[in-house]
């Protein structure tokens, strides 16, 4: 049912490369295997459960069955689009899709989390495939409902859920289709990405800390640059960061 609904709702260019699984180790890992075997992009792989889901910085992304949906897009990497804008674009697309399809209000926590009531309800993992032609994998994991197998917190972030019950297959397909269409639109008009990210961003103006390997910066979240960087107002002045784990103080 999910496959049929997706086939009907997806933009045409994504239909031929659609693959749906009940359970898989990781949709990003499966996407890499398919690329290694010669399969061409665009690809869209979805699973109802992952046994080895991955997040940023090699963290585990809990992906139990019957509580969420997990998918990966593989697309060509445009030479005109800065790679630092891919993850913010995916966040904006997911925020918009959740609002339109599920009527749930969320915020974007830089750089790759979707929050509801300050709890993480979705995560994004962007990976570059270095082979030629260069391609991008965008992995998304969405927590529809609570599950006792999922921890209450991960990497210092409280975990939440979007809904009280898991939506039907048609609604799940609509969410993915809206995400894909919205992301496609943003990537061809990249000047829209950061203004829309700012409009949905969490913790603006609030005291935060940003952890990088071997360094922690503290200050007030002042905003986001057009290149996707976070702007932190510190005791040493304004500083920009392209990576790190953001926490509210």
TrEMBL record:
Please name the PROSITE patterns in this protein's record: BPL_LPL_CATALYTIC (PS51733)
Q: Which UniProt keywords apply?
A: Ligase
CDD domains according to UniProt: BPL
The segment(s) forming the BPL/LPL catalytic domain are 8-187
**Assigned EC number:** 6.3.4.15
Task: Give any GO molecular function from the UniProt entry.
Answer: biotin--[biotin carboxyl-carrier protein] ligase activity
Q: Would you tell me the protein name for this molecule?
A: Biotin--[acetyl-CoA-carboxylase] ligase
Superkingdom is: Bacteria
Kindly indicate whether the keyword Ligase belongs to this entry: yes
Which InterPro entries did the record assign?
Answer: aa-tRNA-synth_II/BPL/LPL, Biotin_CoA_COase_ligase, BPL_LPL_catalytic
